[in-house]
Amino acid sequence: MDHRFIPNLTEEQIADIQLEGLKWTVGHTHANSPFYQARLKEAGVEPGDVTSLDDLRRLPFTTAEDLKDGYPMPLLSVPEKDVVRIHGSSGTTGKRKILAYTQNDIDVWKDMFARCYEMAGLTREDRVQICVGYGLWTAGAGFQLGCERFGAMALPVGPGLLEIQLQMLTDLKSTCICSTASMALLMGEEVQKQGLADRISLKKAIFGSETHTPKMRRQFEQALGLEDSFDIIGMTELYGPGTGLECAAHDGIHYWADMYITEIIDPETLEPVAPGEVGEMVVTSLRKEAAPLIRYRTHDLTRLIPGQCACGVTMPRVDKILGRSDDMFIFRGVNIYPGQIGSVLEHFKELSAEYRIFLSRKDGLDHMAVHVERAPGAPSGNDEGLARALADEIRKNILVRGEVTILGPGELPRSFSKTKRVEDSRGEE
Q: Which portions of this protein are annotated as coiled-coil regions (predicted)?
């Protein structure tokens, strides 16, 4: 299969590239990064000790706390005169995670991102409406860099600005939107509300940055009249978005294994999980100059998917991001991920994909309330029975009981970026 940007590599070729990249990264950081010099010394590892990919497990982990402790430019492994840009995480509390980039880092990033547009089946005739944040965050810059490298037309609108978004859709006939799943859902609802479905030309969406359910995806695909949509992965620490994309076979996300190594570990024991099992994704960069990553703990939960993909692309695959190990909350002794509630909603065609979880504590006892919306067009006469049925299903699947409230379509707050699913006020008693 011929691609302009996606290489056709065998497993053996990928392994050879990874070993050479790993050797380079360890040597580069050992020579140029005070942080990694100290960590490698603690682990008793010299650059010459890395002779196979199995030696990866001898290397120390890097964490988000390390990045915050090294603020403002952690992990820096080049002279500052070689830094051409910085980007930061979208966090709102404490010190941001700020990462530095050389020009080569930028060039690698835009090539990876161009692969994503190619994987989604876009052409240079497409018009790509970019509905994600610009500035310190990596999203807008990454989507635009990759679009221009790929050769399609970029429409850099940014998040929010619904009136302008709809104007671009109708007047400039955007064929692809790039956004969070929440933003795609919001735009789909607005297109339907204003009767614009016959005036837009959207065919595809590339979305990411938050976990989603199949129901949520179906809702925005139908509302926007899409032929297909594609889940994208990435993080500020590893260049930004564009480090992998779902293909048209929808059997996992192809990631660029010639640019970074992915491990899946048990977040408690830090040991590798069995092939195909869910665990925390850990990444090691192979070409990153300014701020390399050695075994960086992402806290994203996923699994490696074995075997070759039906689409013909030979790059390996991970499952969609199933949640974050640090998103988990404990309710009455049970470990719960918000996405488990979203999965239960899949069984109720009368309900939409939107939900919120409210945790509180009264008289020393934890309480959980779940607010969900009726699907557009669904009758409202049986809300009480539907709430009971959903509460029973939650208890059956998650082993805890919550008080369910059914709201009308559109009553829950909408987001232009990531939707906040959990509000925990238990510490305020």
A: none
